[in-house]
Amino acid sequence: MLKQVQHDDFSIMKQALTESEQQTARDIVLEAGKRILNMDRLLVLAPKEFSGLAGNIVTQTDLDTDNFLRTELTRQFPHIGYFSEETYKQTSKELEKDLCWVVDPIDGTLNFSRGIPLFAVSVALMQNQKPVFSMAFAPRLSEFYWAGKGQGAFLDKKRLHVTKVTSLHQAFGSFYSGDLTVSERTMMLTFFEDLNIEYGELYSTVIHGAFVAAGRHDFMHIITAALWDIAAIWLMIEEAGGVFDIFKDPNAKAPYNYTVTGGNKVVVKELLELIGKVRKSK
């Protein structure tokens, strides 16, 4: 059963970062993105658990960017934990701290490695397991997204709002199924096609979410995501006036055990109801 995660505590942002500290964090993420543009995208390393799939890669730039972010964020904010895609096996206990950065140094590594501009540096500050400040910088697009709890969501200085589409059949969104089995993936693709829902695949969960917050897409539905994939966009979509539904699948392999659906309230509600019916029929 899908579980809606509530995010209602408006007091926590005041306790997390001052305005000056927020700017310091933004400057670090901006610098990380600028550094990526000067790095070699072609040096590809295979992770230890390499599956042989084209999308399951890590570049030296991922590692270098993670090192830069970890060094700078922990230097400026020594009291805040650090948890990232590249270090999660060693830093999982960091999430137990009251404050913890959750980082994906390059979300959309496959795109980055192929010279496709749809990738982003993603950093979220979690307080008591919920995001209170988040940033996503897409350096090739020159787009810096950020959100603060109770502050709103922004693209640079422009306030963001999700769309007001009132029907799923009028909607355009994104879908990604990650490491599903062939039969599971076929079921979901058939679901979207049978309902004649327009959707695309950008190969970057963070870009998916940023586009929803910016009103470019009406919805996103991502299966087998990790916390670092969703932490920043969770807050962005909510602060843009949308809904971000999270289901942590107890049967999925951690850390890729999150299924998320984001967008405006009407479209997300309709989509979740339809997905629920499909699951019950199987």
Would you kindly provide a written description of the structure presented here, covering whatever features stand out?
The protein contains nine helices and 14 strands. It is an alpha+beta fold and 282 residues long. The chain has two domains: 12-159, Fructose-1,6-Bisphosphatase, subunit A, domain 1 (Fructose-1,6-Bisphosphatase, Chain A, domain 1), CATH 3.30.540; 168-281, 3-Layer(aba) Sandwich (D-Maltodextrin-Binding Protein, domain 2). It is globular. 41% of the residues are buried. The model is unreliable at 1-13 and 48-52 (pLDDT under 50).
Secondary-structure map with pairings?
Elements: H1 12-16, H2 19-37, E1 44-45, E2 58-59, H3 60-76, E3 81-84, H4 88-91, E4 99-107, H5 109-113, E5 120-127, E6 130-138, E7 143-148, E8 152-155, E9 158-159, E10 172-176, H6 182-194, E11 198-200, H7 205-213, E12 219-225, H8 227-239, E13 243-248, E14 258-263, H9 265-281
Parallel strand pairs: 3-4, 10-11, 10-12
Antiparallel strand pairs: 1-2, 4-5, 5-6, 6-7, 7-8, 8-9, 12-14, 13-14
Helix pairs in contact: 2-3, 7-8
The H-and-E topology, N to C, reads as HHEEHEHEHEEEEEEHEHEHEEH
Give the helix proportion (percent range).
25-40%
Global Rg: 18 Å
Arithmetic mean pLDDT: 87
Find the count of extended strands (DSSP E, 2+ residues): 14
Choose one word for the global shape. Answer: globular
CATH class of the largest domain: Alpha Beta
Low-pLDDT runs: 1-13, 48-52
CATH topology of the largest domain: Fructose-1,6-Bisphosphatase, Chain A, domain 1
Q: Give the structural class.
A: alpha+beta
Strand content: 25-35%
Architecture of the largest domain in CATH? 2-Layer Sandwich
- What is the number of helical segments per DSSP (H or I, 4+ residues)? 9
